[in-house]
Each structure stands twice: as structure tokens, then as C-alpha cells.
């Protein structure tokens, strides 16, 4: 019967260590493979998600462009239709609220209208008066004095009467008194108008002419007024070789027998 040999403890320990090392290596390799697998899986998933996001962004951008193009086309079509239609005046009209008129406002308006009518009536009256005065003046300057009595001499004394009798006979007859009167009025108007404008500014030309006409009727520069300067016209009457003067315009010359 063969001899039974003893167990080498060292060799058993070395073999156990090798087995443990080999198991650890295999376990480590297994873990590394798993980790590499999951890393690759996660990386591929990230790239796919990124690609999907990029594609989604591209689709959204394309849709936005299409929507903008469609909006611009619709807007252009609306503008074209609006330009071809006739403008609606009623649509553009702005409704303005009518203010409420009070009784005081109505009364004020009536007073203003009455005042305006009164002013217009006064202006018409002044205009008619001025026309009548001008017509009267025209008649006065256009008609020659046919009622002149050469036998009546206006004088304040006998000597003046005799002198006038001599002078009147030698004076020429004024055949056109209207021309002289018109020239006198023209000169009077040119002299008075600047004074009135300075004293009473702001009036109309018609008002100035009315004032000048009233001044002219009373002015001593008016030749018609010069004939009336002598308040009492004296008539020379010879009675018994005595010269008498009667202060009465309507008195007739009487020769006492």
C-alpha cells in the first residue's frame, strides 16, 4: 500500500491567493464592461435626444416662417381691398356731442342779435342821411342862383353900399359855381381827414367821410356859408333924399312920395 504524503500548506496558500486574485480580476472586468455599456448607452441616448431637439427647432422655425409669409400675404390682400373700396365718410365721421344750451345762453344770443340789428339799422340810417345830404349838396352846387336881385345891396353903411354897387357891376358872372364848390370841398376833405384819423383812430373810411361832411356843412370855408355870414341884410332905400337901412330880409324897397 503506497505511503500517504502530507499536504503542503504554502502551496495551498499560494493557490488560494491566485484563485482570489483571478476572481477579483474577473469581477473587476465584469464591472468595467457593465459601466462601459451604460456609458455607451447614455451617450447614444444623448446624441439622439440632441438630434431630436435640433429637428424640432428646425420644424418650429419653418412653421414660423410659413405663418409669417401667410400673415404678410393676408395683410397685403386686405390693404389692396381697402385701397380699391370707396372711403366711407360716415365711418370716419367723429360724433361730437351737442352741448346743451341754457336759458341764459339763449337770452344772451337774442340780445346780441337785437344789438346787431340795431347797429345795422343805425348804419343804414346814417348812410341814407349821408346820401340825402350829398344829393342836397349836389343840387345846391349844380343849380345857379336865379333869384339874385341886383337891386338889393347888402351893406352895413351907406358908403359900403355905394362901394358894393360899384364893385358888383364890374365883377364877372360866375357861370360854374359847382366846380368852385367841389374844389373847395375836396381841399377841405384833404385837410380834415388826417386830423380826424389822429384824433379818432380806428374808424372806417365811410365814418370819416360822414364826419367831414357834417363839419363841411358848418365850416366857414364852405362858399355857401359865406353867403350867410351877414345875419341881417340891409337894403338901401331912398326916402326924401335920406338913406335908411331896414334889417329885414323880406322887406321890399318902398319909395315914399
From TrEMBL:
Keywords of this entry: Coiled coil
Listed GO CC annotations: nucleus
GO molecular function, one term: transcription coactivator activity
Biological processes annotated in GO: transcription by RNA polymerase II
Signal peptide from the UniProt entry: none
Basic and acidic residues bias spans: 12-93, 102-151
Keyword Cytoplasm: no
Annotated Pfam families: Ccdc124
Disordered: annotated span: 1-151
Domain Coiled-coil: 146-226
Database matches in InterPro entries: Ccdc124/Oxs1, Ccdc124/Oxs1_C
Statement: the UniProt record of this protein carries the keyword DNA damage: no
Family: Belongs to the CCDC124 family.
Annotated protein name in UniProt: Coiled-coil domain-containing protein 124
Amino acid at each position: 500500500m503506497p505511503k500517504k504524503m502530507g499536504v503542503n500548506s504554502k502551496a495551498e496558500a499560494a493557490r488560494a491567493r491566485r484563485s482570489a486574485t483571478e476572481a477579483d480580476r474577473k469581477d473587476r472586468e465584469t464591472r468595467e464592461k457593465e459601466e462601459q455599456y451604460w456609458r455607451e448607452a447614455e451617450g447614444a441616448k444623448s446624441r439622439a435626444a440632441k438630434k431630436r431637439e435640433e429637428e424640432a427647432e428646425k420644424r418650429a422655425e419653418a412653421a414660423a416662417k410659413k405663418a409669417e409669409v401667410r400673415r404678410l400675404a393676408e395683410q397685403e390682400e386686405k390693404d389692396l381691398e381697402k385701397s380699391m373700396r370707396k372711403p366711407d365718410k360716415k365711418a370716419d365721421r367723429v360724433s361730437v356731442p351737442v352741448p346743451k344750451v341754457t336759458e341764459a345762453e339763449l337770452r344772451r344770443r337774442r340780445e346780441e342779435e337785437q344789438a346787431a340789428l340795431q347797429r345795422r339799422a343805425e348804419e343804414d340810417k346814417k348812410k341814407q342821411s349821408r346820401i340825402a345830404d350829398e344829393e342836397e349838396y349836389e343840387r345846391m352846387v349844380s343849380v345857379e342862383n336865379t333869384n339874385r336881385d341886383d337891386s338889393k345891396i347888402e351893406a352895413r353903411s351907406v358908403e359900403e353900399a355905394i362901394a358894393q354897387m360899384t364893385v358888383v357891376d364890374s365883377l364877372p358872372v360866375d357861370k360854374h359855381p359847382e366846380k368852385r364848390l367841389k374844389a373847395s370841398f375836396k381841399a377841405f376833405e384833404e385837410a380834415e381827414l388826417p386830423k380826424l384819423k389822429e384824433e379818432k383812430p380806428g374808424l372806417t373810411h365811410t365814418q370819416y367821410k360822414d364826419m367831414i361832411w357834417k363839419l363841411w356843412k358848418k365850416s366857414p370855408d364852405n362858399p355857401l356859408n359865406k353867403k350867410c355870414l351877414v345875419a341881417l341884410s340891409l337894403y338901401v332905400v331912398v326916402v326924401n333924399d335920406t338913406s335908411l337901412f331896414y334889417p329885414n330880409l323880406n322887406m321890399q324897397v318902398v319909395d315914399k312920395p
